[in-house]
Structures are given as C-alpha cells and as structure tokens.
Amino acid sequence: MIRGIRGAVTVEADRPEEVLAETRALVLEMVNRNNIDPEDVASVIISATHDIKSSFPAKAVRSIEGWTYVPVMCTHEMDVPGALPHCIRVMMHVNTEVQQQEVRHTFLKGAAALRPDLAQGK
C-alpha cells in the first residue's frame, strides 16, 4: 500500500540557507515520526509559496544520506489571497503497512495553523 504523508513548515524569510535547513528538518521529522526508510519512498513532491524563490527545497532532501535516488520534485503552491506566506509543503508517497489513521503528518512552526487537528510539534 502507498500512503501519502504530509508535512509543512514556514520560514522567516526567503534565504537559501533557511529554506534548505527548514526543509531538511521537516523531512527528517516526518521520517522519524513515521519510521520511514528511503527505500520505501516512491516519490516526494514539495511545493512552496510564491514568495520562496531563493532555492529549490528538493535540494535539501537529496542531501540527506540515503535519499540520493528518491524521486523529488518541486512546484509552486497555488497563489490564493490570504494564504499562509513563506510556506513549504511536502507530500511523501511511502510504501507502508501503516493504516491511514496511524500516519503521523507533521506541521511545524507557522504551518501548524494549516491543520491544527493534525499538528504535532509546533
């Protein structure tokens, strides 16, 4: 079974080092909370709001040991008026036996406001 595991984080400003560090921290937290082995990851899609342009967040994922060959793609989030700014979202597709309600989605920093019902670790 492939399950989608969601995560999101905000950055204070669009600086390459911050975009990469926060993306890396988010993905590592998602991995830890869900006991994910990169061999079980089918793909990762990362979206960023239009105010993030300084770096490709996917670069952070590829830098994690063991994640070199995991397919990762970046895209821009829809530009909806009033949406949460400076936000990076991750959708990880993972082969797992875990039931849908047992998946631990991860929303960090300001992104906890996106899904307060699922946020675990602000």
From TrEMBL:
Residue intervals passing through the bilayer: none
GO molecular function: chorismate mutase activity
Domain of life: Bacteria
Name the UniProt record assigns to this protein: chorismate mutase
GO biological process, one term: aromatic amino acid family biosynthetic process
Alphabetized UniProt keyword annotations: Amino-acid biosynthesis, Aromatic amino acid biosynthesis, Isomerase
Lineage of producing organism: Bacteria, Bacillati, Bacillota, Bacilli, Bacillales
Gene3D superfamilies per the UniProt record, alphabetical: RutC-like (3.30.1330.40)
Organism field: Planococcus lenghuensis
InterPro entries in alphabetical order: Chorismate_mutase_AroH (IPR008243), RutC-like_sf (IPR035959)
Pfam entry (one): CM_1
Reaction it catalyzes: chorismate = prephenate
Enzyme Commission numbers on file: 5.4.99.5
